[in-house]
Here is the input.
Amino acid sequence: MDKGTIVKVSGPLVIASGMKNAKMFEVVRVSDEKLMGEIIELNEDEASIQVYEETTGIGPGDPVYLTGETMSVDLGPGLLTSIYDGIQRPLKSIEKEAGSFITRGIDVPALDYNKKWDFKATASKGQSVIAGDILGEVQETNLISHKIMVPPTIAKAEITDIQSGSFTLKDVVATIKDENGKSHELTMVQKWSIRRPRPFQAKKIPTEPLVTGSRILDTLFPMVKGGAGCIPGPFGAGKTVTQQSLAKYCDAQVIVYIGCGERGNEMTEVLIEFPELEDPNTGEPLMKRTILIANTSNMPVAAREASVYTGITIAEYYRDMGYNVALMADSTSRWAEALREMSGRLEEMPGEEGYPAYLGSKTAEFYERAGSIVCMGSDKRCGSVTAIGAVSPPGGDLSEPVTQNTLRVTKVFWGLDAKLAYKRHFPAINWLSSYSLYLDNVADYWKKEVAEDYAKIREEAMTLLQQESKLEEIVRLVGMDSLSPKERLVLETSKSIREDFLFQNAFDKDDAYTSHKKQYWILRCILSVYKEASKIVEKEDFDFNDLLSLPILQKVIKCKEIKPDELEKFEALEKEVTSAIAELGSKVN
Amino acid sequence: MQKEYKTLKSIAGPLVLVEGVEGVKYEELVELTTPDGSKRMGKVLEVHNDKALVQMFESPQDLTTEGTKAKFLGKPLEIGVSQDMLGRIFSGSGSPLDDGPEIIPEKKLNISGAPINPYSRDFPNDFIQTGISTIDCLNTLVRGQKLPIFSGAGLPHSRVAAQIARQAKVGGDEKGEFAVVFGAMGVTFEESEYFINEFKKTGAINRSVLFINTAADPVVERIATPRLALTTAEYLAFEKGMHVLVILTDLTNYCEALREVSAARKEVPGRRGYPGYLYTDLATLYERAGRIKGKEGSITQIPILTMPEDDITHPIPDLTGYITEGQIVLSRALHGEGIYPPVNVLPSLSRLSPTARKITREDHEGVFAQMYASFARGLEVRDLAIILGESALSDIDLKFLKFAKEFESKFITQEENEDRSIADTLDLSWKLMSALPRNELKRLKEEHIDKYLNTK
Here is the structure.
């Protein structure tokens, strides 16, 4: 094994000499404790190495061993339900090895290589295959059938041997012969470099919404399967709660949740909660479709940088099987800070606020790995990766570099607002500043799957909310009395939209998830009050308090308590609204 | 045999450069001996070929480039811990300040600690009753949480922290002993005496360990002080099964010490001159709170920091808020009105309270949401009234205005020794809410309104 010698240690950065044979991004083992590191800069025979573990006790003269490999992850059955650190070491095995605290130099395999899996061959001997073709399946959890595929590196080949049966990950399940006549023995595991996007045949424009059960997200600012979005917000505004409820309720088939430089207790919460929570779409425990990557804020900073790449590579792998995968990264600001820290130690010329000049391009590269695609393989199956990154701008100031660079490449912006959070209006997503550029993409789906006039109703609600913000300015200056009854109606309706539709309690098990159709009906009922009342408010004798004291309004307020399987009750409610207000109208001139 | 070097090249602030060294390791402990024989400790901050950059933990006063000897000890900074530390007072670098004997350590621990494996953590959910309504009802504290107090210069954060330390108890079962570890960084003599006396008065001193670095003590020592405190806390919690409350004050001084070292190293600064790694560094302190599966004890942290200019977006409170599980914000305006404890309810938050609210009383969740929302509305009305005058307000608005007033004078306000039980606090909330129109109580469940609301 090639070997160099350390000349400098400064925190997670180690510089070694005698590294002529090293490649960029090669993985090295530092000192005799074999700490994992990655080469990030080469200068003649000196290499700068970022070390993924604590470097205490390392010094000049210690050896550095080259491995010839790049930073990569093991992809195969057993990923689901696991919890990994930033460099794909399973935290469960680390606990077994080292106890409750993470010490260093622990080398544990990412997957359990001794566990037996039932491999069911779906291709047969003699069949010719291309990269990405499915050779067989393993039922990984009762939700996900894990497809064993021809690795993307083998373009075309013929199956010379394949067998169904019970195998460990070490066993060969198929042998294929490529065009050059070279034989490859395939196990159920693929290795893939985390910094290289996995290939696909073609990218598509995403058109199917990612249904999240959150009323403000689904109705006002929809996300699509294969889209990219960001959630910036100051602390305490609910980034993590939003990310977690997305992970719980969105209708992706596989979830990759990256806790990047965040709190340890939050990951514990997910670990305790997810095995108990039921997936609203399948009724199975949520954990069975989830992979967690936890590199908490006090774990080594270089591994934090790697964690988002580890996560998205795993997401791409499941996408390649033809699944819709959703990836949550909480928070990308911590990832950017890790970049900044390494850049500072490398003594690079800083860009804005000390961040490296390549922050923008790195951010763009990451979000571009999301997308709706046609997978490799002859069956032209489709898959998607949806990437949603939380951003933690210092002081809640969105003009800072990480937010700005993220906004340039994401199409959905869910802006969290401290003021709303102070009022305990959750999710504290500001309806005036947030946006989704996918509205046109989902228009057809909405028409077909939800309701013909869903987009129209959404538009009406948005207009009312916009008007409200203007009217509130006036009220603040001259008081409520100066408003016309029509304007008051706008205020009352938008208040109802805010309090009875947008407000949603993520901790209440009935309220946390609302189906798409029910969202439509709640909003429609609220707006029906507006529609009917606007017909009568301009009558001369009309008294606003008469309208507000109508008992039917209390029913509208509570209409979100109607069970999802009793949607016909909404229709009845809407009729009641119409007749009650019409009756009121007939009494005044 | 450890070699001694007499090759000190430069001394700049807290940094010492030693040349011609061999076999020096990163983070290694260094002992410097001045020509007159006194000893100072430091650690290796960076090592490049035969040059070692040493950061002092103690004052560099009297160090010389000629004649001072540097000895590299081959191990990181450790603290000797023992259960006998309870009841004792130590300096910011860990030597006894009281008249007691030296501690005979049961074991020696690296003060940097190691990160708790997220998989091994147990989720904090034991409700700690502090007896302070604004905390118990609205910002519930749980065992294993880190909940800082964001204060300002001149605000009574010490009194609030002492009150919490005095009154904190867990309802029902009392398994495991309770201990307080107190770390003071750069506080005034009077402030540190206040805490010592408070602990002595209540007898709490016997189950407390105090680490005191006053404003007069060396600045760089402050970087070690919280780590000594937390290492002791980890030992008491996870090896001796105690429930440890760690109070750290004042984190702002700690961060300034960090900035001083960073500036001396000529690092590229982040916001306001603080180093780019401030977040990571603070995380290595705050994340040492928590509970571990299969272990009896727990560490609950209440760090105190003073926000420069009361600015919550200043890097120190900002980064702290991103790491800790909520924050209790004190308000200068309330303090000015003579309200104690001056908890600014709206920006205060406890992230772990949703689980805690489930185990206190069935109506807690609803009461919490309704009290918050109503008070927020009351404050909005108050703003409106300032511009338009009260006469322009509707009847409903007037009710909210009155509610906000009572909220401040009856709910927030309490005596320094008033220990309200959670039931008292919730009942008080219902009493205040009974003044509001029933159809405005949207966040409460009907059945709870029927059961608890006294409509007279």
Summary: The longest strand of chain B covers residues 39-48. Residues 121 and 292 of chain B are 4 Å apart (CA to CA).
